[in-house]
Amino acid sequence: MTRYENIWTFHTARCVITLDVTPDDDLDLSFDDDGTVAENLNSGLWCAFVARVRVLIDGEEAGCDYLGGCIYENPSDFMDHRGINSTGCGSYFTDMVRSAITEARAWCAIPKPQMRAA
User: Fold this and answer.
1) Are residues 51 and 92 in contact, defined by beta-carbon separation less than 8 angstroms?
2) pTM of the complete model
3) Distances in Å between the alpha carbon of 65 and those of 36, 43, 45, 53?
4) Where are the beta strands (DSSP E) in the chain?
5) 56: which residues sit within 8 A by CB, 6+ positions away?
């Protein structure tokens, strides 16, 4: 079982949105032509992790998004990262929150089974 560490939480009346991380032990460093990334990871200067954003509604997971291969000095830096994403310039973190919320909204639209009284 993978253990995630929570690094950010946002609460509303019924929802909780979280950013959790766990070490990424399956990295593809084929882009690391000069070995700098591997060196910084091995020295502990940088860390590699999988990021998970979840939306919980009344305690039940309604949406989530995952991104592996994240390499930062500190996992909290992931929330401030600006770069190229699927819509142009933006933030991986912001995209993940949007994706998880979109999934949660669709989840809310699905009728939940009702228990019948015997």
Assistant:
1) yes
2) 0.82
3) 29, 29, 26, 5
4) 5-11, 15-23, 47-57, 60-72, 83-85, 88-90
5) 15, 16, 17, 18, 62
User: In 10 A of CB 17, how many CB atoms?
Assistant: 19
| Residue 79: band (very low, low, confident or very high) from pLDDT cuts 50, 70, 90 | confident
**Residue 116 pLDDT more than 90?**
no
- Structure-block tokens of residue 76: 């909290």
pLDDT of residue 69: 94
- Tens-place pLDDT, residues 34-46: 999 999 999 999 9
Q: Can you read off the two tokens belonging to residue 102?
A: 């979109």
What's phi and psi for 64, nearest 5 deg? -155, 160
16 Cβ contact list (under 8 Å, min separation 6): 9, 10, 55, 56
Please give the backbone phi and psi of residue 41, each rounded to the nearest 5 degrees, phi first: -70, -45
Six-digit token pair at 87?
A: 């819509």
Provide the token pair at 39: 């060196």
